[in-house]
Amino acid sequence: SASSDAHDVLVGIDRSPASTAAILWAADKLCRSERDTVHLVHVYRPLQPSAADEATLVPSEKDLQRQRQYHASILSEAVNKFKAASNGRCQCLDHLLAGDAREVLANMADHHNVDAIVVGSR
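-> structure tokens emitted (122 positions)
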């Protein structure tokens, strides 16, 4: 039957209350069996070189690392919320990616052939 099919769902994550609502909704409605996989995806814009007067400020390796750690903490918070809400009913994979959120989410959806994309609305 169709209801026993495996489903792949992608949930876009940020630090907003709307994002938390999306996580809880996905855990409740889309996480039905261990054959279902929910992909929690957090996308951030990497620091870019910026022009300042005569010079260009290039982010250091340490700056980039610090930025990545900050965004990794947002994602792990989301994973904890999802796991608490879903009680281990389904698989949960997390992805931390840099780039343009819309592009990255669309590419991920294609790559994982997902059945649904869930994002919080503001």
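The longest helix spans residues 61-86.
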